[in-house]
Amino acid sequence: MSETPLLVRDVPEEALLARIFPLLPGAPTTIVGPGDDCAVVAAPDGRYVVSTDVLVEDRHFRRRWSSGYDVGWRAAMQNLADVAAMGARPAALVVSLVMPGNLPVEWVTGLARGLAAACTPSGAAVVGGDLSGGDQVVVAVTVHGDLEGREPVLRSGARPGDVVALAGTLGRSAAGLALLDAGRSDDGLTATYLRPDPPIAAGPRAADGGATAMLDVSDGLLRDAGRMARASGARIDVSSAALATDRDALRDAARIVAPGGDDPQLEVRSEDEVRTLLDAWVLAGGEDHGLLATFPAGIELPRGFRTIGVVHGAGAQGDAAAAVTVDGESLRTGTGWDHFRG
Amino acid sequence: MSETPLLVRDVPEEALLARIFPLLPGAPTTIVGPGDDCAVVAAPDGRYVVSTDVLVEDRHFRRRWSSGYDVGWRAAMQNLADVAAMGARPAALVVSLVMPGNLPVEWVTGLARGLAAACTPSGAAVVGGDLSGGDQVVVAVTVHGDLEGREPVLRSGARPGDVVALAGTLGRSAAGLALLDAGRSDDGLTATYLRPDPPIAAGPRAADGGATAMLDVSDGLLRDAGRMARASGARIDVSSAALATDRDALRDAARIVAPGGDDPQLEVRSEDEVRTLLDAWVLAGGEDHGLLATFPAGIELPRGFRTIGVVHGAGAQGDAAAAVTVDGESLRTGTGWDHFRG
Known about the structure:
By secondary structure, chain A is of the alpha+beta class. Chain A folds into two domains: 8-146, CATH 3.30.1330.10; 163-340, PurM-like C-terminal domain (Phosphoribosyl-aminoimidazole Synthetase, Chain A, domain 2, Alpha-Beta Complex). The first copy, chain A, is 31% helix and 23% strand. Chain A contains ten helices and 13 strands. Chain A has helices spanning 13-20, 68-84, 105-119, 172-181, 187-194, 202-208, 221-232, 244-248, 251-257, 267-284; strands at residues 30-32, 39-42, 47-56, 89-99, 125-133, 138-146, 163-167, 213-216, 234-238, 291-295, 305-313, 324-326, 329-330. In chain A, the strands form three sheets. Chain A has a seven-stranded mixed beta sheet with strand order 8-10-7-11-9-12-13. Chain A has a four-stranded mixed beta sheet with strand order 3-6-4-5, with helices on one face. In chain A, strands 1-2 form a two-stranded antiparallel ribbon. In chain A, a hairpin with a 6-residue loop joins β1 (30-32) and β2 (39-42). The first copy, chain A, is flat and about 60 Å long.
């Protein structure tokens, strides 16, 4: 006996808000919470950091794979990672939700629960929001953080000689998405795609530990390292050996997803595809939201960070293509990532 | 000779951002502007107010009526009004923009110009944002304000005996929308719908002038006054005489829009419809974003405010329907607004 779920078009907005509000996490820094024209939030540091990120149905998630809880979790986490990447502690979120009338109310309360579950470990509150109808689900989150007296860690501060370090994982979200696309599932990797778990607390630790530059890896290691390198007027060289464990953790998934995967007749061709997939996931896969940071050489890395490369001067050519190298070689289109395969 | 406009799908995201960034207004309170994981904004007061509002294509605007500039202006203004309604000064906005690939680039740069034009008089900066593809245009703005040492003015502080006052206009946006719906235009009223101009500076003035409660009228006078009355445990009585000038200013538009309007054969039926429309626009029309505030009796109202009613005790029944009265009478469905007509 299947019951028709209650849909948002069947519920007045104020009744929907009354279901959502009790699910949202509060915090002692919230002076005025949801329900007035604005929330009022304490900024004891005299500054706040702020960022906004939007998730759009069928662009960033599919409802057949992601529950409301998953989308709420992910919307919160990708924003919390931006705060962490400045060296700040997450403090307050506001959330705009656009939704079609046929969205189940349970999806929306699930979203609120996912937001809450992702925010609670950081102590961040959801202090306000807006609801609207629309053709597809859109979740726009704005996040605020407290620098607690720290200087913000910008992406532009990397200096030649600095160590390049990473907290968190690489390629797991991309591998999880590829598994879902292939109609497969894996509790670990698909969970990273559906509910990424970036090392939020490592951001303030990195700032306290002397990080000279930091950003969160949302568009892939090479692309985001390139942004850091260009903003810093430097070149970042990544060590392929340092990423071997990241690759190894994804090998089984690549064997499943690669064309010819699971078919022993195609093993040879498939193994080449496996390497290509591993390169793509580890070097270009985003949305694990790990923290990429640089530290002066010789200092002890903060807990959770591991060395993956080194910062060099930009060199005479200083063009965009050479902003990032792997084992000293640039990865121009066509030359491939062969030196990275082993 | 008509030229095909450049579309957003033809332009890489970074190139689009490069066109947008120079158009966005800055402010001295911006410590770190757009381009890093977060912006950093000064909060000299040790607190900030924050609110978010979303505009969705075909729900809140139509592209055939509203240019990108109009939508940017309106998205900013409806958010700035929320800050003003707390008694705060607008300081910083972040903007998430979802857009279909066939949106002209010029529409997006127009949106940036409209945001800038609306923000500049208040001194607010646009400090960050996010771009995404999607099926329809969605503009989600989060606004931040500085209380400059003031206590926030909540909607819950109205006390029996207080004067109810309004800064700004009533019904002009609703009348402007009705004219557009009827295929007509009027420079003044349609402009209020397309580019509302709420009295932002009147918000801090009201707080300094002793306002006990305040909100911005976004959903119509009766509905928003009802929210204030219920939050305050009070009843708000509006004087119909005080709204006569608001009605008179819309009479010509109502004559055009009313069924039978413009047709002298239908003058009698039409005049009744005119009164119904005027009631609907002035009492239930939102989105002029005027500021509704209450002040202790006997004090001089801050510049820009005029008296439109008085606060009473909630009375024994205290039910929702009696939270607002007009000339002492409740406006239950079915009883109509006849006492309001003259």
